[in-house]
Amino acid sequence: MPRRGENIYKRKDNRWEGRYIKGRLPSGKVQFGYVYAKTYQEVKQKLIEKQALYRQQPKLFQTQNVHFYVYCDQWLLLNRNHVKESTLIKYRNIVNNHIKPHIGQYTVEQLDTVVLESFSHMLLISGARHKAGGLSAKTVKDILVVVHSVLKYVQSKTGTHCPSFQMIYPKQYKKQMRVLSKEEQERLTAYLLQEMDACKFGVLLALLTGMRIGEVCALRWADISVDEKTVHVCNTMQRLQQIDTHFTAQKTRVLITEPKTESSNRMIPLTDYAAALCRQYCSENQSAFILTGTEQFMEPRTLQYRLRKYTADCGLSQVHFHVLRHTFATRCVEVGFEVKSLSEILGHSSVQVTLDRYVHSSLDLKRENMNKLAAIGF
């Protein structure tokens, strides 16, 4: 027979049931869990295991008087092996620079719609601590997404319901992206062809294929098949913060990894013109980077500086590397490129991303399409 106080009972269906404390609600009310077995001994063993787990992690199942920053640190710890290093660094910076200084001292019960709306407004107006100027709506939304993810983590680990409120994200306005006109593109192309070196060749290849700056920096001659007229984008280059600075004085390092998504690992067919350029400047050393012609790489920051000089010499302003990618996409649309193919060449996960962010119709193209209405009497 079970002893008094064990919370073990025999049910009418002849099974044994055991009850144990698995947590507490924010109000302090006890939450019970239940285990079942065919015999008393089996239920008792299950209860011992459940009770031991609760005793070993008493704080994990309590949300009262626990500051929000504690859960932020736990969430970062659990995500370190589930996301890319660059993503983890982004999360860590969001937590340390924005969340902890402003709402880290709150408990989960104190976080409500008013608190988070005030937090969001403060970021939009004044930005990060010790920095003047507000953050963009996109950046603030990224911060609130992390807050929401941590709150969901708290709910999953405590077995309790977080305060019920609606997460209000700031409204984002679509920013008009700079795209080179046909005349500007011709001017830049002519400049790059004059006394062309490996770096100028890489910039022109990016304009002809729509590759990202990190993908161009990580591209080696082994990734280009002149005979098949293809470029295999299988790596990207980034400069990342050092997470562990105990063994080095450097705060950042350059890292070559796989592309950001599965869709970004792709094969890009080359035009005859692009293939001819590759054949002309191809290096016998297949391990050489295309931007240097050697096994020493050029990092994205240096390439951005080079492009700034090139465009300044051409009399072009406000041209950073991503403008080349948008220009490529726009030229493709202007010649009637099939959107699904364009999306795969750009390495997008969906056609909608291509249409929303990279397709910029020129006034001439809009006028040309409007003129088609003349055929039906408009």
In short:
The chain is mainly alpha-helical and 378 residues long.
Compute the number of strand runs. Answer: 8
Low-confidence stretches: none
Portion of residues within helices: 40-55%
User: What's the SSE pattern?
Assistant: EEEHHHHHHHHEEEEEHHHHHH
- Oligomerization status of the protein chains: single chain
Q: State the helix count.
A: 14
The whole-angstrom Rg is: 29 Å
Q: What's the average pLDDT?
A: 84
Q: N-to-C terminal Cα separation, in Å?
A: 92 Å
Q: Which structural class matches the secondary elements?
A: mainly alpha
- What is the molecular shape? elongated
Strand content: 5-15%
The main sheet comes to: 3 strands, antiparallel
| Strand ordering within the main sheet | 1-2-3
3D architecture notes:
The chain is elongated and about 85 Å long. The protein has helices at about 40-55, 70-80, 85-105, 115-125, 135-160, 180-195, 200-210, 215-220, 270-280, 300-315, 320-335, 340-345, 350-360, 365-370; strands at about 10, 15-25, 30-35, 225, 230-235, 235-240, 250-255, 265-270. The longest helix is centred in the middle third of the chain and has 22 residues, at about 135-160. Strand 4 and strand 5 form a beta hairpin. A 3-stranded antiparallel beta sheet has the order 1-2-3, covered by helices on one side. It is mainly alpha-helical and about 375 residues long. Helix 2 (about 70-80) packs antiparallel against helix 3 and helix 4 packs antiparallel against helix 5.
